[in-house]
Amino acid sequence: MRALRCSARPLGSPRRGRGRDPWRPNLSPRLPAVRLVAGLLLMVAAALVQVTWAAQLEIAGAFANLVLIAVVGLTWTQGVRAGLLWACAGGILLDLNAPGPLGPHALALLAGAYATGFWARNLDRESPFHPVAAVVVSTILYSLVLIGADDALGLPIPPFRTAVQLTLAASLYNAALMPLALMALRRVTGGLHWEQTAA
Q: Quick one: which of 120, 121, 122 has its CA closest to 131?
């Protein structure tokens, strides 16, 4: 005799042809590897473009922080865990290309990712204004943490007025690029979700 199989599906719930069973979790053994590879490629590309080409497109002495934009976008679309992970990875990549010890850029990006994650959890993600405002706040936090870390390590820091001007210019630059970056990230990472959403 065949043993009876117990199903957790409520009685009377219809099957939807050959589509995915709504009561079966959407898990794939390849998904974590795909996430890691996609995120790593994105961070490496953003860091390479930032240290090579972005500096040549400066406005008012500031240039776009592509790694910060990518971290804010990933945090907004994939959740705070993904944002914190790639903030560490992107920060280390920037630290490797900067004079000084490892850590300041990673710490500064973590501050931006945490602020963005808190923002995304408590506000409407569909509004186009919120991610733009989040990248402005993250840019300010990034600059404050980076200047504070450099000062604590005895590294040279810009004068206060210059730092304020560069931070404001970078905030506007990043804000202008954020909608396009967010649109591109949603297309690339549309099927990759790091956090389970509540039903």
A: 120
Phi first, then psi: what are they for 59, rounded to 5°? -130, 125
Q: What's the pTM?
A: 0.76
What are 159-166's contacts with CB under 8 Å, separation 24+?
Answer: 165/60, 165/61, 166/60, 166/61, 166/62
- Classify the phi-psi angles of 72: left when phi > 0, otherwise alpha if psi is within -120 to 50, otherwise beta: alpha
pLDDT at 55 over 80: no
The tens digit of pLDDT for each residue in 103-155 reads 999 999 999 999 999 988 887 667 889 999 999 999 999 999 999 999 999 98
> Domains in the chain and their CATH numbers?
32-188 (1.10.1760.20)
Torsion angle defined by CA atoms of residues 126, 127, 133 and 138, in that order, rounded to the nearest 10 degrees: 0
pLDDT at 17 over 80: no
Which two three-digit tokens encode residue 143?
Answer: 């600059």
